[in-house]
Amino acid sequence: MNAPVLVVDLEATCSEDMAAGWEMETAEIGAVWVRGNGTVLDHFQSFVRPVVNPQLTAFFTNLTGISQSDVDDAPLFTVAAEQLRQFVERYQMPGSIWVSWGAWDARQLLRDSARYRIAEPIALPHQNGKRLFAKAQKIGKEVGMAKACQLAGQTIAGTHHRALDDAMSIVGLLPFVFGEKLLRAQHQANHSAP
């Protein structure tokens, strides 16, 4: 990792049963620019006001801790996306990528951008940190971010299911994602082999 890496996490509206036709909308964006040595350059956080399902479900509020007043006073996706685009452009360099834990965040940004007919706010190649972590650590299957933190012996930053906190947790996992560090069990297995 020579060029800075952008780590992004989103929280999106949801319901417990996700009834047919329910459209998830981004409700919070968290992003962190990080140097190859793990130094955080800057961070970005914004709530986003949903318009398709403007009333948050109790399930979503209980999961994330995001309140109705947080999103009622928040900018629309078009404004938050422009703020994110400016944040991205501030530190991007040739070779910069963006990472999320899984492909869902990239798909959600694409869905929201298409809904509002705007360009995607991140014009960088995307990498699936969940997949890279599983491959680099040879754990066989992809695991959630909280489980990855547990495997890496890392405490989850802040509150799980809050965008900026989860992005900061992923920042801590990047050395494992890119294979620069091995999980203890794998490290011990590799060094005990004859």
From TrEMBL:
Gene3D superfamilies for this protein: Ribonuclease H-like superfamily/Ribonuclease H
GO BP terms in the entry: DNA metabolic process
InterPro entries, alphabetized: 3-5_Exoribonuclease (IPR051274), ERI-1_3'hExo-like (IPR047201), Ribonucl_H (IPR013520), RNaseH-like_sf (IPR012337), RNaseH_sf (IPR036397)
Keywords: Exonuclease, Hydrolase, Nuclease
Domain (Exonuclease): residue spans on this chain: 4-183
Transmembrane helix in keyword set: no
Pfam families registered for this protein in UniProt: RNase_T
Record has Membrane as a keyword: no
One MF term in the entry's GO annotations: nucleic acid binding
Name of the protein in its database record: 3'-5' Exonuclease
Taxonomic placement: Bacteria, Pseudomonadati, Pseudomonadota, Betaproteobacteria, Burkholderiales
